[in-house]
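Postdoc handover notes: sequence design on the structure in folder B. Input tokens:
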């Protein structure tokens, strides 16, 4: 795994996800405590939104550890799978939990997406690992995986699924696909703006496509009921701040990078 050239800001991370140091202390004593690991991951999942706003601001997703920490912790932003699972990976590594990045291809209606189109976190040192994923289109996914047994590599969630490639990788190996997601007209991330967060009671999803003059806010209850409301571009700034904790000075319009036909849903699920 690529290391930070500075110490990971554990206290700032814990404040970002709203938990105390007691969970870190428990993991320091028992690094293999899967219940505590999942609780930490779930706190992150409910606090940090899955979002691609920077892609529509013309920025390429950066998988360097320092860039992930700056964006997600210092600037209180969300991100896509490489950033959300990346910051979890860095946090667990600093705490002393053996964690590694694993690549995957997302399963779509048209078949499989591109290799390394998704990234998750494998907990453990051997071939039998506990998979944790806080960046699959707004879902949190856990699974028990055997990296030596391809029969266990098919991972499913309510929002879709993916197939692991069975290899553990340093973060920099995902840089090319992060750039592809950020720039290619065939990427689902260049095709629409998305910001989504499940707070444990409701899922809030703000989305817009190129050419639209505003957003749609979809609120999904625990019973599956959905309420859709129009949101103007100007209203989106306050909504991002109040619902998602994202502070931007200006609205972000979905930019048109070309005809989004035959788009590959290779990245990080389908937010509901």
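Designed sequence:
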């Amino acid at each position: 795994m690529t290391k930070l050239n500075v110490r990971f800001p554990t206290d700032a991370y814990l404040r970002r996800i709203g938990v105390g140091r007691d969970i870190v202390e428990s993991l320091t004593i028992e690094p293999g405590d899967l219940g505590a690991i999942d609780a930490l991951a779930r706190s992150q999942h409910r606090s940090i939104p899955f979002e691609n706003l920077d892609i529509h601001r013309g920025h390429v997703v950066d998988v360097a550890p320092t860039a992930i920490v700056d964006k997600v912790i210092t600037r209180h932003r969300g991100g896509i799978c490489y950033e959300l699972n990346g910051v979890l990976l860095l946090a667990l590594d600093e705490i002393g939990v053996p964690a590694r990045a694993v690549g995957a291809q997302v399963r779509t209606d048209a078949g499989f997406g591109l290799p390394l189109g998704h990234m998750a976190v494998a907990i453990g040192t051997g071939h039998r690992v506990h998979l944790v994923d806080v960046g699959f289109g707004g879902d949190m996914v856990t699974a028990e995986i055997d990296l030596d047994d391809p029969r266990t590599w098919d991972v499913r969630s309510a929002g879709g699924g993916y197939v692991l490639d069975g290899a553990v990788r340093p973060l920099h190996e995902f840089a090319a696909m992060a750039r592809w997601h950020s720039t290619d007209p065939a990427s689902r991330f260049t095709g629409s703006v998305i910001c989504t967060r499940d707070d444990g009671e409701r899922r809030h999803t703000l989305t817009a496509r190129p050419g639209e003059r505003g957003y749609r806010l979809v609120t999904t209850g625990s019973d599956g009921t959905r309420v859709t409301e129009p949101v103007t571009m100007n209203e989106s700034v306050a909504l991002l701040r109040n619902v998602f904790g994202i502070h931007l000075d200006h609205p972000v319009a979905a930019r048109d990078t070309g005809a989004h036909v035959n788009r590959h849903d290779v990245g990080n699920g389908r937010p509901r």
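Context for whoever picks this up: Residues 81-95 form the longest helix (15 residues). Don't rerun without checking with the PI first.
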